[in-house]
Amino acid sequence: MLNIILFGPPGAGKGTQSQKIIDKYKLVHISTGEVLRKAIEAQTSLGIEAQKYIDDGNYVSDDMAIEIIKEELDNHKNSNGFIFDGFPRTTFQAQKFSGILSKYSGDVNVMISLELEENDLVERLKNRSKESGRPDDSKEEIIWKRIEIYNQTTVQIKDYYKSLGKYESVNGIGEIDVIFDKICAIIEKYS
Ligand code: ADP
């Protein structure tokens, strides 16, 4: 089973690349953000709770994120493997993750980090908001807040996977297909 974490700040292109990866390798895409947005749209109790955090650019609780992951794994028991997009986002989530995956007879193969400058991220997210209509993309102030939270809370997870010998980075600026080729080379090395 192949388990890949696609990592990077908001706006790095994780969603775009995930789509290409799942098509090529027949993996299941698990995006905690996407699950949360669907829950908000459906106004489930999870969605109503999550919306307070997400619209302001804050993270939801670790418990909430971990519950989503467990449920998604339960829903796709016969999969070849997974792309995790937007999870783990805290050291706590990363530490819990291996234990969770081991119950599904797997472990993380590699974390692939998309690297970009902050100003490029802000421009991308502002453009994305025109199509996505995501409230957390539409205000520059909220975008900067998400980048700040990423820098404070999330970026250090790289060190955790580096210490396990499971970390690779890719420049996130350039042609989508060129970035994708680099990602494929990494996936093949770790599979
Ligand atoms: P992006 O990478 O563009 O910020 P995502 O779709 O991954 O967007 O996530 C959207 C929002 O959902 C995040 O800003 C956060 O509020 C919440 N979220 C997603 N995944 C997690 C997680 N693992 N832990 C906590 N909050 C999360």
Description:
It is a single chain. With 191 residues, this protein is α/β, with parallel strands linked by helices. It has a single domain (2-190), classed as P-loop containing nucleotide triphosphate hydrolases (Rossmann fold, 3-Layer(aba) Sandwich), CATH 3.40.50.300. The protein has helices at residues 14-25, 32-42, 45-54, 62-75, 91-102, 118-132, 135-138, 140-154, 157-163, 176-190, and strands at residues 2-7, 28-31, 81-85, 110-115, 167-171. Strands 2-3-1-4-5 form a five-stranded parallel sheet, sandwiched between helices. The longest helix has 15 residues, at 118-132. The protein is globular. The mean pLDDT is 96.
Number of strands: 5
Number of helices: 10
Query: What is the structural class?
Result: alpha/beta
Total number of domains: 1
The spatial strand order of the largest sheet comes to 2-3-1-4-5
Q: Which spans have pLDDT < 50 for at least 5 consecutive residues?
A: none
Give the bound compounds: adenosine-5'-diphosphate
CATH domain class name: Alpha Beta
State the major sheet.
5 strands, parallel
Round the Cα radius of gyration to an integer and report it: 16 Å
What name does the CATH topology carry?
Rossmann fold
